[in-house]
Amino acid sequence: MSLPKIDPTTTRSWSDLSRHFESIKDEKMQDWFRNDPGRAERMSVNWKEFYLDYSKNRITDETVDLLIKLAEEVGLKTAINAQFSGEIINETEQRAVLHTALRDFNSIKPEVAASLEKIRSFANRLESGEWKGATGKPITDVVNIGIGGSDLGPDMVCEALRYYRNHLNVHFISNVDGDHVMESLKGLDRETTLFIIVSKTFTTQETLTNAHTVRRWFLEACEEQDVASHFVAVSTNLEAVSSFGIASENIFPMWDWVGGRFSLWSAVGLSVACAVGYDNFESLLKGAHGMDKHFQHTPFSENIPVLLALLSVWYNNFFESESECIVPYSQYLNKLVAYLQQGIMESNGKSTDRNGNRIDYQTGTIVWGSTGTNAQHAFFQLIHQGTKLIPVDFICFSESLYGKTDHQNKLLANCFAQTEALLQGTYGSEAENSFKIFDGNKPTNTILIERLTPKSLGSLIAMYEHKLFVQGIVWNIFSYDQWGVELGKKLAKNTLGAIEAGNPASASNSSTRSLLNKTL
Hints:
single chain; Rossmann fold; 6-stranded mixed β-sheet; 5-stranded parallel β-sheet
């Protein structure tokens, strides 16, 4: 079973949506709310700890029906079944896409079960102090060395779950910038620090450069044989890892059927298990699996990831909104947007469809944002009164973790008030002058979650994973490859050769040669 390969613009639903868009594009949500008291209740979804309010969107019941028909017409249900059954849906790389299998404890793969047991044992030994460094001291600091999916996901989750952290200090080194590396090493004690090198092939330039720099720093005061007590790896390249000095029993597996940007659920999340303990790591996985089941089995009309994806298609392809903003009202989630940028934009930034044809409609969305309430004092002015239509996801939690009621009340008041202000604007009221007028009618989704826990965080991340999958199916693209980043890597190797040889003339581009002449 392969994915359907249907150009969405050739479907009847797309034509119907185009006609429908022309008929409602200038209508006001403010009027819809005034004339329809049941709108908010009808356009909402309750699922476990989650409540999605999508009533503040420029849609009618007919819009939702037509969008669902579009999803049906492009074969979304077939695509969902293909992914969960392990079909080769990443066709350009001939790989299955089974990050969902990493968190399915009901029918767990033997290799996944073995990996989880290895993670559990390692994290428990580290947390209890049983794992000792070369001089017999317990580990106090863990440093994750990776980039992209080997960094963004674990880093984001460790920050998001800071409330649940144990005594271990977890750090992340990603950028090949040497200043970043050396700053990260400041204050670390070689005797009590453990490094996790995360690289599937153990050839990633940035990660391996950083790993070897860290190794040399470590050996300034330690012996070669000490490496085995202070370095572990997540990789498939056993030979290269062994050459680095890492013991075979300290190598954690990765699989081709898990893409990098969806890999935090695997041993790539080892630093998460170290930071919050294995039980919380498992809760994260189970929360994601809960959302997997919701996505797989719930009718589209009540399916949170499907609805969010279809709304995104509606704005991207009919209103021509090129970006969407995500604003979590929790400082713990201050790294969520950067994580989602990779997941969404690396997945759906494609201009060739699944038939191999050049696409003549918009795919992908520019994802950006920051935490509330900080964002209200930064870019919200543009969303409120600017000329661009920017749909916004507001994410908030009913309960705070430390029980600071006064703070939480003000946080939620600001979150809900911003969605209302974007809806209402000054519509229907008299403004003192034209500079104080703004139209409102700006679309938002509110995702209200009971409490930030490892489980609810897992569900939230999985929700956005499935959203981007649905978008890709509708746009008829392959979401799980990333050929666009490969060319830059190849050119970087050529440019590095020119730099190391001190020979700008060997660069292939005149602009690059000019830049090298200024550098060398």
